[in-house]
């Protein structure tokens, strides 16, 4: 039977990849909702997006796709971390200090998850790792 340290040393890098994939997939849904109206939000479509929302949608969807695949993970995750920090401070922080009350906990959490990914990289199940091994 494997001891705890062996198990964690095997699974820690794999769980990093799983965290990257899940966070990117969830962020992509925000971008696809803005850009493509899918999944439907329950709010009526307003037609063309304001430039700030369009930029956010592009970064969320296509940046999320790159992070999901694990390609250019560190620089893209850093940009997405900044995007989520901007979203928090522009849309949520003016509504009050506490994220649970200003409904900004998701933006704050995304910001720190993507900041972590910008430092940690994509993990073993990433195209970055595959390309690095093939050099």
Describe the structure.
This protein has 135 residues and is an all-alpha fold. The chain has one domain (15-38, 47-133). It is 73% helix and 0% strand. The protein is built from 6 helices and no strands. Helix 1 (4-36) packs antiparallel against helix 2, helix 2 packs antiparallel against helix 3 (73-92) and helix 3 packs antiparallel against helix 5. The chain is globular. The chain starts with a helix and ends with a helix. The model has no long low-confidence stretch (mean pLDDT 94).
**Quick one: how many beta strands?**
0
Instruction: Give me the Rg, rounded.
Output: 17 Å
Helix run count: 6
> What's the average pLDDT?
94
Beta-strand residue fraction:
under 5%
- Taken together, the total number of domains comes to 1
* Helical content band: over 70%
Low-pLDDT stretches: none
> How is the biggest beta sheet arranged?
none
In short:
This protein is an all-alpha fold and about 140 residues long. The chain has six helices and no strands. It has one domain.
Secondary structure elements and their pairing?
Elements: H1 4-36, H2 51-69, H3 73-92, H4 99-102, H5 105-120, H6 127-133
Descriptive key words:
135 residues, mainly alpha
């Amino acid at each position: 039977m494997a001891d705890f340290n062996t198990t964690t040393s095997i699974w820690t890098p794999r769980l990093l990849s799983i965290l990257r994939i899940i966070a990117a997939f969830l962020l992509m849904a925000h971008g696809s909702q803005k850009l493509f109206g899918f999944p439907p939000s329950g709010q009526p479509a307003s037609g063309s997006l304001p430039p700030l929302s369009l930029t956010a949608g592009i970064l969320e969807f296509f940046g999320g796709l790159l992070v999901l695949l694990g390609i250019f993970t560190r620089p893209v995750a850093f940009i997405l971390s900044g995007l989520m920090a901007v979203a928090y401070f522009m849309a949520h922080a003016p509504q009050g200090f506490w994220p649970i009350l200003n409904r900004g906990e998701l933006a704050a959490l995304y910001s720190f998850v993507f900041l972590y990914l910008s430092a940690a990289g994509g993990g073993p199940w990433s195209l970055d790792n595959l390309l690095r091994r093939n050099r």
